[in-house]
Amino acid sequence: MVYSIMEINNSSDLLPNVTMGFQLYDSCYNEVRSLMGTSWIISGKEQFVPNFECHQHIMPSAIVGDMPSKASMPIARILGLYRYPQVSYASAHPLLSDKTQFPSFLRTISNDNYEVFAIARLIQYFNWTWVGIITSDNDLGRSGTQLLTKEIESNGGCIAFQEILPLYTSMESVYRIVDVLKKTKATAIIVYSTMENLIPLMEVASFNNITDKVWVGSGSWSITSDFPRRETLTTLNGSLGLAPLSGKIPGFKEFLYNIHPSKYPDDIYIKTFWELAFGCVWPANQTTALKEGSVWCTGKERLDSIDTSVYDVYNFRYTYKIHNAVFAIANALHQMNTCVPGHGPFKNGSCADIYNHQPWQLLHYIKHVKFNNPAGETIFFDENGDVPIYVDILNWQLFPNGSNQYVHIGSFDAGSKKGHELKIEQQNILWNQGQTQVPISVCSDTCPRGHRRATRQGQQICCFDCVPCSEGEILNPFDDSECIKCPGDKWPNTRKEICLPKVIQFLSYEEMLGTSLACISVLLCLLTFSVFCLFIAKRKTPIVKANNRELSYLLLISLMLCFLCSLVFIGQPNMITCMIRQVVFGIIFSVCLSVILAKTMTVILVFSATNPHSKLRRLVGLRIPIYIVPFCTMVQIALCIAWLASAAPFTEFNMEAEIGTIVIECNEGSNAFFTCVLGYMGLLASISLLVAFLARKLPDTFNEAKFITFSMLVFASVWVTFIPAYLSTKGKHMVAVEIFAIISSSAGLLVCIFFPKCYIILIHPEMNSRQFITGKNNRKL
């Protein structure tokens, strides 16, 4: 204040030819002392007489102060009655913005409500969801805590505990709070209290070695070093605190370094300060004896040699706010002094006399003042008497030599765009016990990926268990307390964070299984074609002519087509392949089985013709085997046409067959027709097996009925085992099972019926004669 008034008095632009002065009153952090000082200022007498003004000289124009809100509020209530201007530099209680109760109160510090918003955003920034609150037992503490709790909970956090510090120290309450601090899982502790209430708690906390907490302080105590014990500073090391904006006051550092008792002989504080700063003693008189271990103050000591932790000439916070308060009053007086009659703000354009004005007139000018202070910052008051909101965020760092420092690590600007109010320089933070990582303050650890939060019954939402998301679900990116199901064509990734497109699956030629089956089919088809060529080449030999060689040719051609039809089942299914593959398979196999039945009937009829007593002799001339093949085939063709006409197979994307996979498969359309097609083939196979079995003992050197019996046994065994295997598999393996059944049953027919004949043709051509076939040769097969 002294420096600010000196600047104003030395200025040629601000209040020229007008000298400002001041009076100092110490309220001692006490409401009663504040009221006493106020009464002296208003009345001019130590014995206050209400509504009487007894000043011997001019009455002070305005009051700058007080620092604590509890002292400013009773002052403001009295001064408001007289509309006497009061500008505080540190009282941040939100209630002081109420102009109905405090019409003449203004301040150069921000409203405490914005400090609450800053603390809540700070807690959210570090992801501290489980925090404790310690507050003073007064209006500021209760209202601030209520608002702070609301803000923290709206940001997703929870309050682990809320303890109240009594206004008058109660060690029982202090020990109870310390016991809570020991037991709580919360690491971040918000202290919304005044300095004098906090000291006993911090001393007991230091005795109990509570150093694993992060204390988050309000501006009312976080930038003070008035704690009497070093252990307390150790406990608070690494704390975060809010502080008024640190401003620059040009020339103030030099002014502070030039202070000397000789320059201010009437200052009652300067000698005491000098003794404390330099550890010396001023002699009361020349005969005073110096105590052992002490030194005399010489006056030659240099203030610039003192450590800044003791005599800080760089960080001006409340000092800067006082500077602004004094300049606000001076600028208001300047506007009053330069008012032009007829253009003034009062009735009929009148002006006020700077030397003889009413308090409400100066209050009008202060409310509407707007100026740039010497540091270049624009100062003005809003309709509530508050200044623009901006606070610094500090980190309390203690060094091994015992000194401490407040390091600027960020700021909160309420005027910034929403979501960008808070700025933090995390690399500058030093946490307690030398930690470099941000301490964790949560009730329950973060759930692993793919797990949702399940709130514990009867507890706050921040205390939860982790439950894995069900199969096919991912964690909701907007709400980690629930899982959401992926769409049908998608599947969760391994971390269950996002839904990825399912893998498309079908039996393709590119994979080993599809390639192997395709190669086997082609090789067996070529083998069958080789047998066919051999039979064409040896068509005139008895063994080829036996049992109707035309039926043998037709059977070989059908077997070749059977092997090739399995290729239709490989590759990505489409509308055409789905419609024809079962139909082609059914018709071709019906042809094969019809030919086998016809060959068996031929054997029976031939040998029946040689028996004069057989009733079947008269059927030989009817050539029944020739009609068996087209008749039996036409029945299957009719079934297939009906199938395609009523409920044709179609392509289907099966998302349920395999986890995380979309199986492209053919839906058979009508299971009834599919069963009929397979059932008809089973009927033909059963009849062929029965007829061949009955004819197995017919006399002949080369009885083909025996081989047909064996082939049908193989065929029946394959398709009987196919049914349970087909029904128990899914996806592409179901197709592979059907292909395997087609190949193996066709191969069984080829081997059992034609390989014995090929053996004779190639290895024992001498047996390929009419005499051997009719049994007139002694050699046996």
Automatic annotation (TrEMBL):
Membrane topology of the entry: Multi-pass membrane protein
Annotated ranges, domain G-protein coupled receptors family 3 profile: 513-777
Keywords: Cell membrane, G-protein coupled receptor, Glycoprotein, Membrane, Receptor, Signal, Transducer, Transmembrane, Transmembrane helix
Transmembrane portions of the chain: 512-537, 553-571, 583-608, 620-645, 672-695, 707-727, 739-762
Main location: membrane
The organism's place on the tree of life at top rank: Eukaryota
A GO CC term assigned to this protein in UniProt: plasma membrane
SUPFAM superfamilies: Periplasmic binding protein-like I (SSF53822)
PROSITE patterns cross-referenced by the UniProt entry: G_PROTEIN_RECEP_F3_3, G_PROTEIN_RECEP_F3_4
Subcellular location: Cell membrane
Molecular function GO labels: G protein-coupled receptor activity
Protein name per its UniProtKB record: G-protein coupled receptors family 3 profile domain-containing protein
Species this protein is from: Xenopus laevis (African clawed frog)
